[in-house]
Amino acid sequence: MQLTVWTYEGPPHVGAMRIATAMEGVHYVLHAPQGDTYADLLFTMIERRDKRPPVTYTTFEARDLGSDTAALFQTTLREAYERFRPEAMLVGASCTAELIQDDPGGLAKAAGLPVPVIALELPSYQRKENWGAAETFYQLVRTLAAPPASADGSTAPERPARRRPLCNILGPTALGFRHRDDLAEIRTLLASLGVDVGVVAPLGASPADLARLGEADFNVVLYPEIAGVAARWLKRSFGQAFTTVVPIGVGATQEFIAEVRQLAGIDAETSLPETRLPWFSRSVDSSYLTGKRVFVFGDATHAIAAARMVTEEFGFTLVGLGTYSREFAREVRVVGEAHGLTALITDDYLEVEEAIAALQPELVLGTQMERHIAKRLGIGCAVISAPVHVQDYPARHSPQMGFEGANVLWDTFVHPLVMGLEEHLLGMFRDDFEFNDAARPSHLGAGERVEAVAPAAAQAEAATLEAAGWGEDAEAELRKIPFFVRGKARRNTERFAAERGLSRITVETLYDAKAHFGR
């Protein structure tokens, strides 16, 4: 066991909570001690939901371990059913309660409740949150989904004739990164293609809705980490094909549209929304961003999509790729190999920080953990994947998927780099009588300026430069170079000096290196 300050995923029962919270008419009874009830705050504080998750805890204490904790679970289960009257119930144990082996599934079966009770076996010490969400959704679908029975109960009747194809959308959950907005975007896109949506699950679905899953012609899988297992079961059981392209980015969205048309049997071309990303990618404004070194890390779905976007649609250079989704390590490794990289598969943020520091990218695309790492290293960063904090659940519509999602990601990827230009302009005017560091802001009137303390990142950078042999004049000259190319200039100069055996980097060394690499 490894102690850590941060973690990319919670235990699997948090994944089960995400499914229960996303659905209607489902209640989760969790066998857990008092300390394991913290997960409620993830939904009320971070996602800013206006109600608590539909979860009841047994909340046993240390003194209860000497008595009958199994009886406590059964009592809690019956009371939860009587109070909430759900259409279906989930039962399971937290990581701590798993150790006392009370068998919530067997106890729930013995209780004889008049609604379906799905027992969850979630190994807390081998698996994590996304796996727990996928397993919970799969068990719900497997238990509740069934093709409509015929009059004699032998076979399913033929589907009623209808003018438009019908699909289900699978994957959106509670506490999902931009799931609400992605769902709205994909609904609109499907409607423009002439495809109706039957069931969206688990977000907003009831047990009765899951029973209708078999009526659709095919399934749209937005998040394979959550819905991949259930979609494969539906294909085996009901013969429903499912989409394999995640529509993040212009190219992927176009491929998604082609896949949906094929599955739905749609031949006619339809007018589609436009995105400004292709225009930007061809514009002069984007030319100074070409070749920027980017490090990508997150869940597999968003990491793979971001890697494709930055290379194919922005012209950036991918220098690092990784994921904490071990169940999808193979897929991420394949993408990494296509770019000549060895993908980083880890759930240890310290390994990620070490990789970023070694690669010295100019932009980091990751989770809130990479945001903290990049800030500490003085690198621009944008959040593209869970885990995220409250600011990444915006009140505005801000999807990642579809053509509007491509517009949002354009802003997301470019803004950290463009802010470097603003910093450079401030640096250019630093010696101006009105804008120098000692001048008081003009809107505050006359007076002396309070001396600012150099940020830790600047102090760390100065120490690193000194250790690398940079002279004071050379360091001052380096800082005049725009932020967004300064890292490349520094690497080239240090490489130039090392190849020539120079122990001290001067202004002349800096300009000699510039001339050498500019040939």
TrEMBL record:
Pfam family, one: Oxidored_nitro
Subunit structure: Protochlorophyllide reductase is composed of three subunits; BchL, BchN and BchB. Forms a heterotetramer of two BchB and two BchN subunits.
Recorded catalytic activity of this chain's protein: chlorophyllide a + oxidized 2[4Fe-4S]-[ferredoxin] + 2 ADP + 2 phosphate = protochlorophyllide a + reduced 2[4Fe-4S]-[ferredoxin] + 2 ATP + 2 H2O
Residues making up the signal peptide according to the UniProt record: none
Active site: D285
Name of the protein described by the UniProt record: Light-independent protochlorophyllide reductase subunit B
Pathway connected to this protein: Porphyrin-containing compound metabolism; bacteriochlorophyll biosynthesis (light-independent)
EC number, UniProt record: 1.3.7.7
HAMAP family linked to this entry: ChlB_BchB
Keyword ATP-binding on entry: yes
Cofactors, names only: [4Fe-4S] cluster
Class of this enzyme: oxidoreductase
Family the UniProt entry places it in: Belongs to the ChlB/BchB/BchZ family.
Positions annotated to bind substrate: G420, L421
PANTHER family: LIGHT-INDEPENDENT PROTOCHLOROPHYLLIDE REDUCTASE SUBUNIT B
Function (record text): Component of the dark-operative protochlorophyllide reductase (DPOR) that uses Mg-ATP and reduced ferredoxin to reduce ring D of protochlorophyllide (Pchlide) to form chlorophyllide a (Chlide). This reaction is light-independent. The NB-protein (BchN-BchB) is the catalytic component of the complex.
A biological process term (GO) from this entry: light-independent bacteriochlorophyll biosynthetic process
Keyword tags: 4Fe-4S, ATP-binding, Bacteriochlorophyll biosynthesis, Chlorophyll biosynthesis, Iron, Iron-sulfur, Metal-binding, Nucleotide-binding, Oxidoreductase, Photosynthesis
Textual note on the cofactor: Binds 1 [4Fe-4S] cluster per heterodimer. The cluster is bound at the heterodimer interface by residues from both subunits.
